[in-house]
């Protein structure tokens, strides 16, 4: 299996120039699915903190980079929407946010804001023992005792240290939302109406 990805075929969310070179680094399996951007691209092409994969590995081996509060050792680890990147030695912190055209961009934040991250609920199910598991947009999960208050589409604020839910925002009319794809990516708006399309009737 190749460790390279053709630039012309990378997802639109990747912040790379497609015609500069033929190949770029390939993301490992992990969070965010195919839209996840390899950490090396963020460190080298976006921030300019390193010039090579070797330099990136050195920084990661010294715990110089935290993603959602955890030290990362893999330079191909996928980075995606609402991840928190922290560089404690530099006192620099960023939230991954949708930019123009749906490309991922880095928004500078302060250390206090970097202590938690956003997550969108994509599903929930009951697991063994009676607890419930919430699935989030990046592929991560959170286990809770009572899921009655949570629904797919709701948003959570999750503490990066203990991974507990610290805030819950329901997806409802009047809620503030952020467009994460398309020509309006990165824009903040308010939900005016939620239309539910009924499933087609079964064919007799």
UniProtKB/TrEMBL annotation:
Domain Small ribosomal subunit protein eS4 N-terminal: 3-33
Family label: Belongs to the eukaryotic ribosomal protein eS4 family.
Alphabetical UniProt keywords: Ribonucleoprotein, Ribosomal protein, RNA-binding, rRNA-binding
Biological processes annotated in GO: translation
Gene Ontology molecular function, alphabetical: rRNA binding; structural constituent of ribosome
Entry-linked HAMAP family: Ribosomal_eS4
Organism annotation: Halolamina pelagica
TM annotation in the entry: none
Record carries keyword Transmembrane helix: no
A Gene Ontology term for the protein's cellular component: cytosolic small ribosomal subunit
Domain Small ribosomal subunit protein eS4 central region: 91-165
Signal sequence residues: none
The name this protein goes by in its record: Small ribosomal subunit protein eS4
């Amino acid at each position: 299996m190749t460790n390279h990805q053709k630039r012309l075929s990378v997802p639109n969310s990747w912040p790379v120039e497609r015609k500069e070179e033929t190949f770029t680094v390939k993301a490992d399996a992990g969070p965010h699915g195919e839209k996840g951007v390899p950490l090396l691209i963020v460190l080298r092409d976006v921030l300019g903190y390193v010039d090579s994969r070797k330099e990136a590995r050195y920084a990661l081996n010294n715990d110089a980079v935290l993603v959602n509060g955890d030290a990362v050792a893999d330079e191909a680890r996928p980075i995606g929407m609402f991840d928190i990147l922290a560089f404690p030695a530099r006192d620099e912190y960023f939230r991954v946010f949708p930019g123009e055209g749906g490309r991922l961009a880095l928004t500078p934040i302060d250390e206090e804001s970097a202590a938690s991250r956003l997550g969108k609920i994509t599903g929930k199910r009951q697991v063994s023992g009676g607890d419930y598991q919430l699935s989030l947009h990046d592929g991560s999960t959170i286990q809770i005792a009572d899921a009655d208050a949570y629904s797919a589409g709701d948003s959570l604020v999750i503490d990066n240290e203990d991974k507990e839910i610290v805030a819950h925002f329901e997806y409802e009319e009047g809620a503030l939302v952020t467009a994460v794809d398309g020509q309006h990516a990165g824009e903040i708006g308010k939900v005016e109406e939620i239309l539910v399309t009924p499933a087609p009737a079964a064919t007799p």
